[in-house]
Amino acid sequence: MFNISYxxxxxxxxxxxxxxxRATIDSLSKCxxxxxxxxxxxxxxxxxGDEDEIESxxxxxxxxxxxxxxKHVHVIERESxxxxxxxNRQGIEEVLGKHGKVIFLEDDNKVASGFLVYMNQAxxxxxxxxxxxxxxxxxxxxxxxxxxxxxSNSSDDIFAFPRFVAWGVGFWSRSYPLMQPxxxxxxxxxxxxxxxxxxxxxxxxxxxxxxxxxxxxxxTRATFYQLSNQCFSIFPKNSLVQNIGQDGSGLHSGIxxxxxxxxxxxxxxxxxxxxxxxxxxxxxxxxxxxxISEDDMSSEVLDNILSQIQHxxxxxxxxxxxxxxxxxxxxxxxxxxxxxxxxIDSWAREDEMFQAYSVINLQDAYxxxxxxxxxxxxxxxxKMAEIxxxxxxxxxFIHFVE
Length: 402
Hints:
The chain is α/β, with parallel strands linked by helices. The chain has helices at about 20-30, 50-60, 85-100, 115-125, 145-150, 185-195, 200-210, 220-230, 280-290, 300-310, 325-335, 360-365, 380-390; strands at about 10-15, 40-45, 70-75, 100-105, 110, 130-135, 160, 170, 230-235, 240-245, 315-320, 340-345, 355, 355-360, 370-375, 395-400. InterPro entries: Nucleotide-diphossugar_trans.
């Protein structure tokens, strides 16, 4: 074991997914160091119709208070519905204000038994290292490159990479405030210095969505900061976290098995290299993994959208957003004899085309009389809906709904 005077507290933000929450807390209770670790759980207030589910969650959480599984359990019950982001971020700020460091988990993050040892060891080791923004517990299933990348020094148990995954992540009061909104100027400056796509071609749209107010994501902001400031996050060479919420129940995640991993059974004595640097082979494989592919999109999401269009009787639509989801949707609409008038993109250039369709911005689509818009984004759909409601009240729109 190792000598650390003060272990980082755990923080979980939760709403109404009781079965996921139980699995997460059960896995944490089996970790080394759990009995020496404080656990904060922020239970968001109910939206109309969810009162019974929220009460069931809170009954379970109240039952954890005073148990021996953790050093102390703090349950914070919100009196009103904060929404996931506000509940998460105010909770993080509160815990950081008291302790200076925190290990944050979503309520669908099942962890390995060595998770807390790894997190505390890394948080202590890199606390004063400004190159390290965070300590991530989840690592994608990229075992093929792990073997070759770690061959030269097989004792190393971690690697550095300038992306951020919030499924079991630790940070400090020095690093959390650095995850700020992205400005168009800062994005332009970054694009002049690096090829963003080399770290995953999903980042281009994510950064643009942040600039346009379509997305409000700590993952995206943290990754942007790291790429802009030549710093990185620490990852275990095998994952210590499994996200069990890729079943369509989460706010920003669809149905996918792409992120499934086998949890690492290492429990202690994690080895950290003296010289932190991003391995080129690792960068290429991580970039390939995070890049958008057809595997990211469940047919259930596309069928859900198509059924809504057909139910409404729309014969023509415009699609807002251009990525894999749009590419897969276009042939479905053609087969269903639904005309696509335009593809909408906030960054559209003059006379831009995509697969024989004109690409225009939202303002022009509205000026041309488009009143039926399909939001082609999973993670940004609620923000994009807010924009339409606020500025284009006569436009009808749909997006994926659970």
